[in-house]
């Protein structure tokens, strides 16, 4: 198989944004591949204007804030019209606006770079990357002989996933919904018992017995024949009427809470919380929501956990049929209610690396052998914690996104970037996997380029 074309060298590039780690990674990879890259961290208008007076071959705008990325993109286009622009964006609405306003701009979805690695680790431990390409799936697997690429059609949902979804029907995780179901089931049980006693003891026709049972449930009154019934029947009837009060209170309280609160899970249907062979995703930002959608597209059950009641992605998750539980992902009791020991994997993908580590520690405490996938930023805390214990599959966002953006800035078209042990590799459309370290130029050539 032929080698992919190496990125061009000798270009003068500019990396602009407020994400210091990601901007540094983009600039370092571009320089390592034989280009001159200057990084500007949060430049003002004058500083950016000064650096754009000289011609540049391309500008990368990297930021975790879409509005900041939009501002810098429009400013660069104003100062250097027609310059090649590559900008990182999460939100599709902002991406569409940038594409419309700046035709010479290439918009890179941050989730496109990160999610394939997270998705592969959630599906199977041997997958370094998994991505949908049209109607097919392209998977990169670890193997003793090196990375192996497999192309196959999307598979139907497995029986384990179907069973997990079926077990989740009518099994809510919140207390108010459980109270409503218990109250409703208790009322039905009392109604069935009163109907049966009316037919068997009071010798009523079943329509009359059912009508009198409904009168008892609504506290309108009991059957007239009950006044002449045996004593044991009266005692049982009194107990059932007292039980109706309790069951009716539970049902009413649960129903009112469900109608008045913004519920993000359902009792039945696609937003019911699965109970087996599912993935628990902690952190419902843009990355978490995209990961949930990709897992559902593969037929894998998923439930998301978000601690912020006002998170921007919550309404979108509800519209997409993603069940969401509001709570702290590091809460052991919540993880138990979500059936973590029976899950396929747990993915901690919030933007806070320390919070992801806390979630992993809690998950290890209740499910020691559970597969855990961590989103990390390449900080020292994550690396040190990973060396102390088997924390799980760590997806270093900076390590993956940096070369992805740098390659696209240099007109290199690739599907995804992923890490295998100490190597950072790229997957191309023809199924070729290439070690990005082979693109590095010698120090002597870098000195010539710098001079």
Automatic annotation (TrEMBL):
Q: RCK N-terminal domain: from which residue to which, for each copy?
A: 276-398
Record's protein name: RCK N-terminal domain-containing protein
Q: Which InterPro entries match?
A: NAD(P)-bd_dom_sf, RCK_N, Trk_Ktr_HKT_K-transport
Question: Which Pfam families does the entry mention?
Answer: TrkA_N
Which residue spans traverse the membrane?
A: 179-202, 235-256
Question: Keywords assigned by UniProt?
Answer: Membrane, Transmembrane, Transmembrane helix
Q: Which domain of life is it from?
A: Bacteria
């Amino acid at each position: 198989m032929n080698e992919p074309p190496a990125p061009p060298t000798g270009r003068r590039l500019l990396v602009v944004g407020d994400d210091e780690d990601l901007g540094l990674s983009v600039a370092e990879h571009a320089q390592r591949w034989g280009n001159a890259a200057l990084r500007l961290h949060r430049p003002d208008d004058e500083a950016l204007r000064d650096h754009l007076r000289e011609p540049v071959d391309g500008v990368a705008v990297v930021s975790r804030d879409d509005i900041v990325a939009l501002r810098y993109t429009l400013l660069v286009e104003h100062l250097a019209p027609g310059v090649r622009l590559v900008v990182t964006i999460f939100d599709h609405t902002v991406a569409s606006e940038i594409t419309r306003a700046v035709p010479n701009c290439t918009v890179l979805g941050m989730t496109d770079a990160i999610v394939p690695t997270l998705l592969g680790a959630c599906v199977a431990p041997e997958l370094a990357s998994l991505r949908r390409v049209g109607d097919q799936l392209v998977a990169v697997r670890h193997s003793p002989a090196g990375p192996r690429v497999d192309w196959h059609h999307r598979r139907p949902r497995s029986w384990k996933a179907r069973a997990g979804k079926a077990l989740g029907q009518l099994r809510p995780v919140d207390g108010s919904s459980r109270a409503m179901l218990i109250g409703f089931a208790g009322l039905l049980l009392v109604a069935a018992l009163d109907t049966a006693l009316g037919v068997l003891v009071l010798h009523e026709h079943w329509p009359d017995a059912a009508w009198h049972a409904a009168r008892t449930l609504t506290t309108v009154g009991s059957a007239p024949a009950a006044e002449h019934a045996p004593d044991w029947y009266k005692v049982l009837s009194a107990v059932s009427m007292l039980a109706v009060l309790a069951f009716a209170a539970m049902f009413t309280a649960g129903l009112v809470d469900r109608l008045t609160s913004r519920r993000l899970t359902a009792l039945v249907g696609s937003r019911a919380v699965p109970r087996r062979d599912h993935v628990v995703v902690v952190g419902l930002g843009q990355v978490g929501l995209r990961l949930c959608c990709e897992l559902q597209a593969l037929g894998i059950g998923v439930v998301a956990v978000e601690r912020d009641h006002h998170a921007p992605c919550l309404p979108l998750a509800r519209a997409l049929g993603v069940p969401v539980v509001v709570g702290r992902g590091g809460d052991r009791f919540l993880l138990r209610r979500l059936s973590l020991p029976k899950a396929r994997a747990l993915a901690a993908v919030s933007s806070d690396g320390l919070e992801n580590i806390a979630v992993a520690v809690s998950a290890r405490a209740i499910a020691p052998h559970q597969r855990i996938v961590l989103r990390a930023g390449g900080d020292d805390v994550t690396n040190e914690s990973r060396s102390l214990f088997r924390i799980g599959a760590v997806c270093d966002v900076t390590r993956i996104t940096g070369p992805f953006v740098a390659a696209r800035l240099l007109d290199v078209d690739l599907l995804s970037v992923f890490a295998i042990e100490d190597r950072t590799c790229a997957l191309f459309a023809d199924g070729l996997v290439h070690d990005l370290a082979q693109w590095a130029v010698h120090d002597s050539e870098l000195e010539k380029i710098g001079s």
